[in-house]
Amino acid sequence: MWNDATAQMGMQFGRSAMMAGSEYVEKNINRYLNYPALKHYFKVNNSYVANKIRLLLFPWRHRPWSRLVKRSEQNGQMEGYKPPRDDINSPDLYIPTMALVTYVLLTGIVAGTEHKFHPEVLGVNATTAFLLMISELTFIKGGCYLLNIAAETRILDLLAYSGYKFIGVIVTLLVGLLAPFWVVVATFFYTVAANGFFLLRSLRYVVFPDTTTTNTVNIPQRNRQRRIHFLFLVASLQFVFMYLLIK
Fold this sequence. Notes:
The protein has 247 residues and is mainly α. It is 70% helix and 3% strand. InterPro entries: Yif1_fam (IPR005578).
């Protein structure tokens, strides 16, 4: 009987400790990371993933590019944007995350076929990919600041757009395992062009926010031209980033 009481007290103490620990972790995570906002980027389904990958590889005739707005049922006010599973134009973090992991593993396979594989290859390539994404994010945010572009765009949006390039890189690496060099080069240039075009259209709402209001119309022509040039520069830099990832 004494053992049963002791065991029951131990179990109760364990549950209390686990609840306290979970509450502490959740409190500190929410303190530094907006979990509900992060969860939004992983609301995907199989249909969205398949259609989004197809869009990333064949973006030329896609219409429209505008994102779907989520409105309040009470007053109809804008509450944000619809999640990825309800809007193919919505950025997500599921595809970039899976693509990054696939890219790192695939570079290991490529190194193995060339008899150059060692465990450090995976770590080096993962670090390189991460640093390139951070560099691109810093460049875009810096450009937005210098051009006085409204900082309403979430950093997670830009992180998602930066991560989509791994789809084209993966396709190029896979072709490199099966096809001659000239086919690999052609595939590389095609995927760079596709990713650049995708960003050119998708990032337009970042460079020209609130296109349905008069705020955009009142942008001076000189500043408007600078923003357009910045947008094309971001798209053009995909050649450099994707080349470094493949190399």
